[in-house]
Amino acid sequence: MYADRKNTREQDQKMVYELDGRPSLSTAVPLGLQHVLAMFTSNLAPILIIAGVCGLSGADTVTMVQCAMFVSGLTTFIQLYPLRLGSRYQVGARLPIVMGTSFTFVPTASAVGAAGGIGAVLGGCLAGSLVEVFMGFFYKYIRRFFPPLVVGCTLVTIGVNLLGIGVDYFAGGAGAADYGSLKNLAVASFVLVIVILLQRFGKGLAKNAAILIGLVAGYVAAAFLGMVDAAPIAEAAWFGLPLPMQFKMTFQLAAIMSFAALFVTSGLETIGNTSGITMAGFDREATERETSGAILADALGSTTAAIFNALPNTAFGQNAGIVAMTRVVNRWCIATGAFILMVSGFFPKLGAIFSAIPNAVLGGAIITVFGMILINGIKMIAKAGFSERNILVMGLTFVFGIGVPAHPEAVAQLPGFIRFIFNDAVTATCIVAIIANILFPMRDQGDIEKAKEAMMG
């Protein structure tokens, strides 16, 4: 009997590093749950921000939160287990990609929502998502504009941006009254130390679930220190259906165009995170079919999110970082997390428990995860090579992609259609990288061969 249990555990531990297979729930659920906990606050934060800008009631805000959780879980399932569209296309990557509400849309959604209300936001997102549908179906023809050098630079920028977000969480959350307090730093450091020790010295499930264990330990410690607000948990209802079309949509051309441009960025984030996962988990570049499927799932998830009163979805960088850190790529493990997300959409009380995790606890657990995204971008760039031509492209990309958006006053007097490019660092990085890549074509045969090898994975 003991030998059978030991063999089962050993089989489970091997299986979690394989894409397919079904480890026992005792192994799969903790690994799926840590993905949920790592992205839960980030999944809900954009919803709470936009609900506040639009002046929504508490009940309407709860509706949006429920729907965001439900749609995130549903779209993650589609990424894991794709919908087939004939022999050529699939909606979903068949990779361990976790989907969640995108922060990319928050600035534009805030401006649109302040002027036209939540209906204008949802209408703009619904119509604008068609751009990403186009990207997914025609990725075969446009992929030459996104070679590993371009995607790698974009991934580096995503990683750099996430590092700042991770530091804010570590200190207690951007804008928090106690930002940077000793209590926040102590709790975050406590969680970080647990995660590092388990990653370094732990074995089996303890090592793979290091982030989850750190989060639970930090949650308990924060509760004893009075850092957990239990009021929202007590006030939340036990059950509620996430219903579609709870707000009347309006369609404004300016809003649709703005969101359409952002969906290109969202697609690029998904391309970058898909490549990051395959590089970290399988040591190869993502295939054309995987990338196209990931983009289409992103688009479908965003369209569904708009219908279900939530903001657009995208592949979450922190979860790609967890895959990079743990190398757990089993779809069944991630699917248990997706199921928990969907269930949370039906039980507001459960969602309230997750969302009550203090920012400092979350920051201590995920700050190293964000660094993995940056490293994966560097790995992609290294695969493309550091020739004179590539160094020139990278130099221009990071100067205008990261440097200029950090100082928007430098381009404040430029025409609006040019200034718009530099509103977001990820958008700017990608656009500048594509343009520089075209303006300085590869002439050296060694560069061309390396690019072909990188594109083929």
- What is the ordering of alpha helices and beta strands? HHHEEEHHHHHHHHHHEHHHHHHHH
Main sheet overview: 2 strands, antiparallel
User: What is the averaged pLDDT score?
Assistant: 81
Q: Which consecutive residue ranges, at least 5 long each, have pLDDT under 50?
A: none
Fraction of residues in H or I helices: over 70%
What amount of the residues lies in strands? Answer: under 5%
Task: Output the structural class.
Answer: mainly alpha
Strand order, sheet with most strands? 1-2
Tally of separate helices: 21
Q: What Rg is obtained from the alpha carbons, in whole angstroms?
A: 21 Å
Total DSSP E strands: 4
- Describe the global form: globular
Span of the ends, CA to CA:
44 Å
Describe the structure.
The protein is 71% helix and 3% strand. With 457 residues, it is an all-alpha fold. Strands 1-2 form a two-stranded antiparallel sheet.
